[in-house]
Write a structure and sequence with these properties.
Blueprint (H helix, E strand, L loop, with lengths): L5 E4 L6 E5 L9 H12 L3 E5 L2 H9 L8 H14 L6 E6 L1 H13 L3 E5 L24 E6 L7 H4 L8 E6 L16 H17 L1
Parallel strand pairs: 2-3, 2-4, 4-5, 5-6, 6-7
Antiparallel strand pairs: 1-3
Helix pairs in contact: 1-6, 3-4
Length: 205
């Protein structure tokens, strides 16, 4: 497995947070840019990378589905090694990127895990849960989730058996990308700023 190319934000001596993108958008999507730059402004060293299928999309323009899970997990392992090893890093990402990180967090022995909009189930399929490994997760974990996320709303998630090592921060009226409805009285900027503050506090411990 080749070492993925990284996009860095923040001071070189800051606490390291490795972030992976979601299934459909690259590492420099508006959401990822906002999170990375906000966290960098709070002193974190944010290292973003892309899975092989997204790197190929960037090079060829061809839109193909995500790589097989084994490839995604191996890319995560390579990213952790490239950044100096598990004891130095917190891992996580948007949606699928965070879910893949959650699958190797205990095995790798990382400092912590951050999931930005965890996909507890596919859209419209609340019967197909992706939570079995979360019940026994040992890694300190922060999940930042919109209360009306279509891949895991507050009402749904509060019924799941999650490890006591997991803390969930709820963003009012947020969707899967934390965007609230105008009628809620909240703004997307407010939710993104709250997400940044929660993640920065978690990584700094």
């Amino acid at each position: 497995m080749e070492t993925p190319a990284f996009l860095f934000d923040g001071p070189g001596d800051g606490p390291i947070l490795i972030l992976a993108h979601g299934a459909g958008a690259p590492m420099d999507s508006p959401f990822m840019n906002t999170m990375a730059r906000g966290l960098a402004a709070r002193g974190l060293r944010v290292a973003r990378f892309e899975f092989p299928y997204m790197q190929r999309r960037r090079e060829t323009g061809e839109r193909k589905p995500p790589d097989r899970e084994a490839v995604l997990l191996q890319t995560w392992r390579a990213a952790i090694d490239a950044m100096g090893g598990a004891e130095r890093v917190v891992v996580g990402g948007k949606s699928m990127g965070g879910r893949m990180a959650s699958l190797i967090a205990d095995e790798a022995g990382v400092r912590g895990l951050v999931c930005l909009g965890y996909p507890f189930h596919p859209m419209g399929r609340p019967d197909r849960l992706r939570v079995a490994h979360l019940a026994d997760l040992r890694t300190p974990t922060l999940i930042v989730q919109g209360t009306r996320d279509g891949l895991g709303s507050r009402e749904e998630v509060e019924g799941y058996a999650l490890s006591p090592r997991i803390r969930v921060v709820w963003l009012p009226d947020g969707d899967h990308s934390f965007k609230p409805r105008a009628s809620s009285g909240r703004t997307e900027r407010q939710n993104l700023e709250e997400a940044v503050e929660a993640v920065a506090g978690f990584v700094r411990g």
